[in-house]
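Note to self: keep these together.
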Amino acid sequence: MNDLSSAPQPERLRKPDWIRVKAPTSQGYGETRKLMRDLGLNTVCEEAACPNIGECWTKKHATVMILGDVCTRACAFCNVKTGMPRAVDPLEPEHVAIAAAKLGLEHIVITSVDRDDLPDGGAGQFVKVINALRANTPGTTIEILTPDFRGKMRAAVEAIMAAGPDVYNHNLETVPRLYPTIRPGARYYASLRLLEEVKAHDPLVFTKSGIMLGLGEQRLEVHQVMDDMRTVGIDFLTMGQYLQPTPKHTKVIEFVNPKAFDAYGAIARAKGFLQVAASPLTRSSYHAGDDFKAMRAARAAQADRAAGRS
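Structure:
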């Protein structure tokens, strides 16, 4: 019998120059960090070890992660803690609104951990956060990045859509073939159905989804994901390089060259997405405010062309 413990392990791939970023040291970064601490808010920027945290926090852009910092799933790519979450913080919606006001955010992204332990999957907290933002910072556009609300999807989407977010994001993360190992607690087609359900409630809401590259996916598989997204009317596609947060997480199979990202982006635009962000450092909320403005302008231009006003 082979001794697997003594078998040679594959070396961890060395990061290429195009994926390296400087450590955050700016005053703006420190001020954003302090504000999040003072309000008791979690951010996906920190919990997911985002490589863009220095740049974004320097500009006072932070993506708030509601419903605590402990997830009920254990995805192989994600750095967020897994376990039994604490009770939902009733002050969280108001604190998010205070943070948005103090940071002067024109556009805010709200995400969450998975909360399979809650009867509504956490949808009610998304609603409360949206309502608090509308009441306190009415000029701020709101983008939400939700989990799949496994087994509770229709009721969750209905409640959230009634609150009126400007952008509804749910990431597919990878190609269907890799779900059993990369995203075992989720189902690819269930995620597609969620995004289709969002459009059914409001065809004018912007929908968004993203995938990571470098997990062993094949080029034609990525093209098929794009087609699946367009079938359910997704407006905005993000594509970024997967980075292994710790040695216990799934390994990087490939560091995808920036030129390959450019090629994927060109194909996605040809397939009809209103907005595409494709680069090694792209993440769901990276430059989200600027991308929202560009997406809104693209839709307006599209409407003008359809009406013969171009």
